[in-house]
Amino acid sequence: VQLVESGGGLVQAGGSLRLSCAASGDTFSINTMAWYRQAPGKRREFLATISSDTSTTNYADSVEGRFTISRDNAKNTMYLQMNSLKPEDTATYYCHAETHGYGMAYWGKGTLVVVSS
Question: 80: how many CB neighbours lie within 10 A of its CB?
Fold first, then answer.
């Protein structure tokens, strides 16, 4: 499984961005998918997860109500709609996928989001 994030960039505080994560390879094996982020000098932080059938989502308190995770299985793509962005949202955002069965984990290389004040 290969994961490629896109959609990052520079945005002003209060603005919005939509990140995408395109999966390729053995996409039928993908179970849950998630978004994480890592700011400079900080640990990688969980943001949101979505089940394989898209029926279940969970969010970190820090983004609940501002970010929305979604997934289009027909396109093998996951999204993160980010609204009301704050300077503290500045980070590299990573896509994560876990497979059925053995629960193999895969990461993308990340996309940088910078929120200016």
Answer: 26
